[in-house]
Specification:
Oligomer: single chain
Shape: globular
Number of strands: 11
Largest sheet: 7 strands, mixed
Order of helices and strands: EEEEEEEEEEE
Number of helices: 0
Helix content: under 10%
Distance between the termini: 37 Å
Radius of gyration: 13 Å
Strand content: over 45%
């Protein structure tokens, strides 16, 4: 399983970005997908996750109501729509694939992408 994240960039406060994570290799539809982020000097933080079926989504408290995770199994891609961005959202964002629960735990993900930088200017 290989994961390729893209879509990061520089945006002003209040702006939007959409991250994408394309998977190649084993069956995309059999894995839960998650997004995590890590800012300099901080631990990796759970952002959002979606179950393998797409029927369940989960969000970290700091992004609820602003971010939306979705998946397109036909395109082997998971998305993270980020609205109303704040400077504290600045981090490297990682997508991950895994199985089991709870989906907000890094240890439930066996495959990680390389990360994409998101910078929100004030």
């Amino acid at each position: 399983v290989q994961l390729q994240a893209s879509g990061g960039g520089l945006v002003q406060t209040g702006g939007s970005l959409r991250l994408s994570c394309a998977q190649s290799g084993r069956a995309f539809g059999s894995y839960n997908k998650g997004w995590f982020r890590q800012a300099p000097g901080k631990e990796r933080e759970f952002v959002a996750a979606i179950s393998w079926s797409g029927g369940n989504t989960y969000y970290g408290d700091s992004v609820k109501g602003r971010f939306t995770i979705s998946r397109d199994n036909a395109k082997n891609t998971v998305y993270l729509q980020m609205n109303s961005l704040k400077p504290e959202d600045t981090a490297v964002y990682f997508c991950a694939a895994g199985s089991g629960s709870p989906l907000d735990r890094t240890e439930k993900y066996g495959y990680w992408g390389q990360g994409t930088q998101v910078t929100v200017s004030s």
